[in-house]
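Hey, quick one: can you model this chain's 3D structure?
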Amino acid sequence: MRDLILQCAGVAGIAVALIHGMLGETKVFAKATIQPESLRTLIRLVWQAGTVAWIGGGVLLIAAPSFGSESARHWIVATIVAVYAFAAAANAWWSRGRGFGWKALGAVVVLAVAGY
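Sure thing. Here's the predicted structure for all 116 residues.
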């Protein structure tokens, strides 16, 4: 059962990452005025680096049960929980607790800890 919960955390993590990437492109950068244009490209790439990292974390959470190593499971969960928890805290602070993002990121953390 804990393997399934951990894999659900991975799927949720990937979903959150994809939503993050899509909202960045359609809501944030569609309205942002950033000059010079090269800086706009850099900021957009840095934003999407987070998206790619969260997808990678989700993939690791999905794959962790198949590694057959409690040590690997421990370090994968610990690392991904730290990454998502920091992102959740930052998002909650930025949105003053009103946003959806910190709740979705927090749900991934809760699932990952439950699946540990």
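One thing worth noting: Residues 1-115 form one domain.
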